[in-house]
Amino acid sequence: MASSAHKQQQQQQLPNMYGATAAPPPTPSALSTNSQSTTAATADALSRLLHRLPPNLSLPTRHFPASSTTTTSPPPPLISLSDPNPNDRLLSSASQLGFFQLSDHDISSQLAQSAELESLSLFELEKDKKESYFPKNWPLGHEAYEEDEDGDGDVNGESFCLDSLCSTESTELNLTSLREFTREMEKVGLKMVEMLASTVGFENPIGQDPTRICSLMWVSQRSHGMDGEKPVLSGGFYPYIVALQYQIRQQKYSLLTNSGRVTVSPQVDSILVTLGDIAQVWSNGKLKKVRGRPCLVPGNAKNNNSQSISMSLLVTLPIDSRVSPMIIIHQVDNNCHEENDEVEEDDQIPGSSSSVKKKKEENKLMFESFCFEDYAWRLYHERLLLKDPLDRYRI
């Protein structure tokens, strides 16, 4: 069991704003995604107000992108932690795709398999024990869901969102392997953040202060009764810096990128690393991202039910954080038409009678700063990933 001091620290990072038994209120989904900064500030204020209203309304319908546009992608780029100079390959994968697979890490397959067995045991608990052992404390806790996606087959399942200590309210559960697995995956995730910051060229916001990040282990299981090539959606979406999935067996993942869904199949014992929206904002748009967590694609499940489990480690931020670009992109102005502005003699092009502006470097921010809590709340409860949720913060 986790110590009381550690549990108190986690509670400070992820406060219970609604009570253990209260259902969260809806958030304003009709706000324009193209609003300017003033409108965005008003929307955030309204969101904070709605958080405090009595939770007597049901959550909005959850929408997911159609899977018909899914395309098969080559295997994710392979990056080895034993490579003395992985920067070029890392930068290429992170800036062009937003995902890659990681090899030569220190996490053993035996530990991952033991963690999976312990995770499966959680879904075998009786309903009242799931709710009492893992009370809802957004985003932590147990959640069950049932949905009919696109009207062509039912998808139902449940998930457990755990803190980095895999804390529970039970003295009976043995989650030793899952807890150790989460701790080792977190170490890899922090290493990825450090490497990305160094490679892309911004200061690592975490530094030596571990309280500036917050890790979540999201364990999801879905029953699927129809098309076996359809992604097994993983429940609530939550902002993150990087997400990691250990590849215990040969399995496909569906990733939602800006260009549509792609299906990838990492090699066994590798770790699939996806970059999230926070990484994209920190890099001021230099890094690509994957929207939400990767979804499992069940194999050959047609005409019969299959169970799929996903263990996703999210390296994310404490709830009271603000998100803003950590670097400024330098853009070159190549305007070569005549300007009315006064131009110094040195700015003239030799052999030309016209005055031309010199190439200028401009500092341009791609995103405005925003409150992590409001963004996370909206992303988790609206789950409208047909549109990029970061669009409302683009400058």
From TrEMBL:
UniProt signal peptide: none
Cited InterPro entries: DIOX_N (IPR026992), IPNS-like_sf (IPR027443)
Domain Non-haem dioxygenase N-terminal: 88-148
Coiled-coil parts of chain: none
SUPFAM superfamilies: Clavaminate synthase-like (SSF51197)
Taxonomic placement: Eukaryota, Viridiplantae, Streptophyta, Embryophyta, Tracheophyta
Biased composition (Low complexity): 29-44
Region (Disordered): 1-44, 56-87
Protein name per its UniProtKB record: Non-haem dioxygenase N-terminal domain-containing protein
Assigned keywords, A-Z: Iron, Metal-binding
GO MF term (any one): metal ion binding
Gene3D superfamilies, alphabetized: B-lactam Antibiotic, Isopenicillin N Synthase, Chain
